[in-house]
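Hey all, sorry for the wall of text incoming. These are the two entities for the joint prediction.
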Amino acid sequence: MSILSLFQWIQSLGFLTQLRESAIVYPIVMTTHLSCIAVFGGMILMTDMRLLGLALNKYTVSEVVSGLRLWKRVGFVIMVSMGALLAGSEAEKYYHNPYFWAKMTFLALVGVHALVFRPRVYNQTEEIDRVPQIPARAKAAAVLSLVIWTGVLTMGRLIGYYEGYKPDAPAVPAQVK
Amino acid sequence: MIAFAYDPSTNPLNNNEWSFPLLECIHILGFTLSIGTIAILDLRMLGLAFVRHPSRELAKSLAPWTLVGLVVMLISGPLIFSSDPNMYLRNISFRLKMYALLAAILYNYTLHRWAALREPAPAVGKFVAVVSLALWVSVVAGGLFIAFF
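and here's what came out:
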């Protein structure tokens, strides 16, 4: 099974077809996705600013990282579920959209960032709080997090602007028999 | 109704295919910063984060960041509006969004600020925080619904 046929099958699922055709549920799902970006994206921004020593300096790095961790996770789960619903309901269109794949690449980088920096920074906040200067690896984690999440956001917004794929035109030229 | 005698095709925003989406991204980053920092304070008032410090302290630490986010969003927003003002003015979602935005900003710098700094009974603080979150989510919803209704 090709990825395209998988995407076509996803899109044909009953509840995703209903979502695509709903005039009211679709924008509500999108609003939930965007509200999560506002509420929980801001927490990611402020955690990064704390790691850079630019904000919340009255609070220890441990307090900021552990205080917001649960809420960022809750937000991430809601945001990804809503995003999956939106993408799934128009999966075939998304398959042909380069910005969708760019966004997925940035999301994969979010995973790589977590694998690299969780053991070195986010699970070592007490050590970071003990030293007088914020270590370079913590600042690197913050800068990369800002870059990657800005990439996710920008590519996500650009998905809506891509007009290269015309669903009415045949995806492959008809074969001459 | 108010209408502008103005030709949107003369606006540079409408003559470059990248300027509009990039302005939208800046707008989203701006409100992520302002709404995100307000939401962190709301979590504190709800007793769900940073409970070891008073909410007054958190309010003071976050206020400059909230303001930066608001300024970014209040510069990028009107620029987006300028791309087609008469369409926005006719749009019911846009008008509702403007009322919600006005209410949310006034609320943030009056009741919300008072509750964060003066720390009334926890039940009052929680109520103020829930209203704050609801107001800001309604602003986001209003903005998104412009494209649908």
